[in-house]
Automatic annotation (TrEMBL):
Domain of life of the source: Bacteria
Record InterPro entries: HATPase_C_sf, HATPase_dom
Entries under Pfam families matching the protein: HATPase_c_2
Ranges of residues in domain Histidine kinase/HSP90-like ATPase: 34-133
Organism: Rossellomorea vietnamensis
Name this protein carries in UniProt: Anti-sigma regulatory factor
């Protein structure tokens, strides 16, 4: 796994920076325009959540390779208060901010791999992969 970039998210402009980085890397790796848009959407959602719920965090982008596949790994981490009910937050329609409640469930449906862990001591960690087709 090759690290492509680490983007610190501390204000709104950092969300745009993360989107630009991931767009360039997804294009460079050969993702279709549609998949580039999906990957940008995922990074935007994860970075926005870092900013809104933890006030800061980081997005780390990796070129990820298995024996037969190449993809992009997106890792989002914060040291915020954590998510009290992970099962609930993954339900479509559930929101603590008054939004549509489609954010994290949408990220999970877009990406090929998705994992999340969260605690009040360590914050939240989200790990996703989109494979090149």
């Amino acid at each position: 796994m090759e690290e492509l970039a680490t983007i610190l998210i501390k204000d709104l402009k950092d969300i745009a920076t993360a989107r630009t980085f991931v767009r360039n890397f997804a294009k460079e790796l050969g993702f279709s325009t549609l998949d580039q848009t999906r990957i940008i959407t995922v990074v935007s959602e994860l970075a926005r959540n870092l900013y809104l719920y933890a006030q800061h965090g980081q997005i780390i982008l990796y070129k990820h390779q298995s024996l037969s596949q190449t993809g992009i790994r997106i890792y989002a981490a914060d040291s915020g208060p954590g998510i009290a009910d992970l099962q609930k937050v993954m339900e479509i329609g559930y929101s603590t901010s008054g939004g549509l409640g489609a954010g994290l469930p949408g990220v999970k449906s877009i990406m090929d791999e998705f994992s999340i862990s969260s605690s009040s001591e360590e914050g939240t960690r989200i790990n996703t992969v989109k494979w090149l087709r």
